[in-house]
Amino acid sequence: MIKVSKIVWDFSGTEFEDCDYEEARKITVLPKSIKIKESDLDSDACEEDIIEYLNESYGFEVEMIEIDED
Questions:
Q1: pLDDT (tens digit, 9 = 90+) per residue, 43-57?
Q2: Cα 67 to Cα 44: distance, rounded to the nearest angstrom
Q3: Confidence band of 31 (pLDDT split at 50, 70, 90)
Q4: For 12, which DSSP code?
Q5: Closest C-alpha to 6, from 44, 54, 56, 60
Q6: Element containing residue 5 per DSSP (H, E)
Q7: Rounded to the nearest 10 degrees, how much is the dihedral formed by the CA atoms of 39, 41, 47, 53?
Q8: Comparing C-alpha atoms, which of 8, 18, 23 is closest to residue 58?
Q9: Rounded Cα–Cα distance for residues 10 and 1 (Å)
Q10: For strand 61-68 and strand 2-10, is the pairing parallel, antiparallel, or unpaired?
């Protein structure tokens, strides 16, 4: 399991770009953190692969993430 402890979404260029960040995140139902099954990504997935996965899965761009490495 890959634990992404902090996701910062990028709302620029969307109808939410002028909204408060937390309000926009809640309206769009985007997670602050997430656990991703390793089977959903390649075994050698890097940060860029995880960001791409989130972009494709949620339809919004990711500005940055923090990965918990246990």
A1: 778 899 999 999 999
A2: 14
A3: very high
A4: T
A5: 54
A6: strand 2-10
A7: -120
A8: 8
A9: 25
A10: antiparallel
